[in-house]
């Protein structure tokens, strides 16, 4: 009667040894990935999310994509009439309409992508609660989807610049692309941070609205960098100007000004020559500082996103 017992023990030992020999390194822990690097692995899902965001943006809208032209046009006209005509900046800055518009389109890119990225997780809560996929796909898809609606504004800017006498060059195109790259990378870091915070604390969307309002006035589009330099020098706080110009959005706007407005013959031939036609003092260091700010925002944004994504399904 001892044989069946010994045989049973042998089977248990064999099963236990078989289980312990399984290599679990080939499996992924659910809900934990490689962060933003998984975007390249799941690029097909990214395309689907981008298509979803672009198709739903103007769903059941009469004007559809035409709204991509209407809102920035109205915004431009309001700023032009108030700042350009009433406050008189039109007489101080040659070709002021293009100076204003070339900076405004980049600020609109920042504001729109920030808003879309912040609400990306909450607006896709049905997917987040039902299946696992890299959560970073949602803010990135929102940013890219909103970027497609920036392209019509960029096309209008190019057409208006050509009417003003702008001649494209490798330098101007390179400056414009660099400006876009800086802004999109900056928004990616901020978008990761605020999209994660917004899942648990919906106050984050209100904070983003405040940031969007400040963004318009925190860069030299409704005034010139030379005005900021004069004020900080007068009040003996020149370091404030360096902090001001280290903002990636401010750097991107200046790159756009030089790519479009600064290349106009009417601006270069103006008498007297506009001071803001030159690069701001020590601008190369401001670019380096802006890149540092972008890297810092990406690191912090990814870190906070990874900490909060563990409870996305429960919080939603």
TrEMBL record:
<dbReference type="InterPro" id="IPR013525">
    <property type="entry name" value="ABC2_TM"/>
</dbReference>
<feature type="transmembrane region" description="Helical">
    <location>
        <begin position="285"/>
        <end position="305"/>
    </location>
</feature>
<feature type="transmembrane region" description="Helical">
    <location>
        <begin position="206"/>
        <end position="225"/>
    </location>
</feature>
<feature type="transmembrane region" description="Helical">
    <location>
        <begin position="62"/>
        <end position="82"/>
    </location>
</feature>
<keyword id="KW-1133">Transmembrane helix</keyword>
<dbReference type="GO" id="GO:0005886">
    <property type="term" value="C:plasma membrane"/>
</dbReference>
<feature type="domain" description="ABC transmembrane type-2">
    <location>
        <begin position="63"/>
        <end position="308"/>
    </location>
</feature>
<dbReference type="GO" id="GO:0140359">
    <property type="term" value="F:ABC-type transporter activity"/>
</dbReference>
<dbReference type="InterPro" id="IPR047817">
    <property type="entry name" value="ABC2_TM_bact-type"/>
</dbReference>
<keyword id="KW-0997">Cell inner membrane</keyword>
<dbReference type="Pfam" id="PF01061">
    <property type="entry name" value="ABC2_membrane"/>
</dbReference>
<keyword id="KW-1003">Cell membrane</keyword>
<protein>
    <recommendedName>
        <fullName>Transport permease protein</fullName>
    </recommendedName>
</protein>
<feature type="transmembrane region" description="Helical">
    <location>
        <begin position="94"/>
        <end position="111"/>
    </location>
</feature>
<feature type="transmembrane region" description="Helical">
    <location>
        <begin position="170"/>
        <end position="194"/>
    </location>
</feature>
<keyword id="KW-0472">Membrane</keyword>
<dbReference type="GO" id="GO:0015920">
    <property type="term" value="P:lipopolysaccharide transport"/>
</dbReference>
<keyword id="KW-0812">Transmembrane</keyword>
<comment type="similarity">
    <text>Belongs to the ABC-2 integral membrane protein family.</text>
</comment>
<keyword id="KW-0813">Transport</keyword>
<feature type="transmembrane region" description="Helical">
    <location>
        <begin position="137"/>
        <end position="164"/>
    </location>
</feature>
């Amino acid at each position: 009667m001892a044989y069946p017992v010994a045989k049973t023990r042998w089977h248990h030992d064999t099963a236990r040894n078989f289980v312990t020999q399984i290599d679990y390194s080939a499996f992924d822990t659910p809900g934990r990935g490689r962060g933003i690097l998984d975007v390249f692995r799941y690029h097909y899902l990214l395309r689907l999310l981008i298509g979803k965001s672009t198709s739903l943006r103007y769903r059941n809208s009469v004007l559809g994509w035409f709204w991509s032209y209407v809102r920035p046009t109205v915004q431009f006209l309001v700023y032009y009439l108030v700042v350009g005509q009433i406050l008189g900046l039109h007489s101080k800055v040659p070709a002021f309409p293009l100076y204003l518009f070339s900076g405004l389109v980049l600020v609109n890119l920042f504001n729109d992508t920030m808003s879309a990225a912040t609400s990306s997780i909450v607006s896709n809560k049905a997917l987040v609660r039902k299946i696992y996929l890299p959560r970073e796909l949602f803010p990135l898809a929102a940013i890219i989807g909103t970027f497609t609606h920036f392209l019509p504004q960029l096309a209008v800017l190019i057409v208006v610049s050509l009417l003003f006498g702008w001649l494209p060059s490798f330098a101007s195109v390179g400056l414009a692309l660099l400006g876009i790259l800086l802004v999109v990378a900056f928004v990616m870091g901020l978008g990761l941070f605020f999209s994660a915070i917004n899942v648990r604390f919906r106050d984050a969307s209100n904070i983003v609205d405040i940031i969007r309002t400040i963004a318009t006035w925190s860069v030299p589009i409704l005034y010139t960098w030379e005005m900021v330099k004069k004020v900080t020098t007068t009040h003996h706080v020149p370091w404030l100007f360096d902090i001001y110009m280290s903002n990636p959005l401010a750097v991107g706007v200046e790159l756009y000004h030089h790519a479009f407005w600064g290349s106009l013959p009417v601006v270069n031939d103006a008498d007297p020559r506009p001071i803001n036609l030159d690069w701001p003092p020590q601008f190369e260091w401001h670019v380096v500082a802006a890149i540092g700010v972008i890297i810092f925002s990406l690191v912090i944004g990814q870190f906070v996103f990874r900490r909060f994504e563990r409870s996305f399904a429960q919080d939603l």
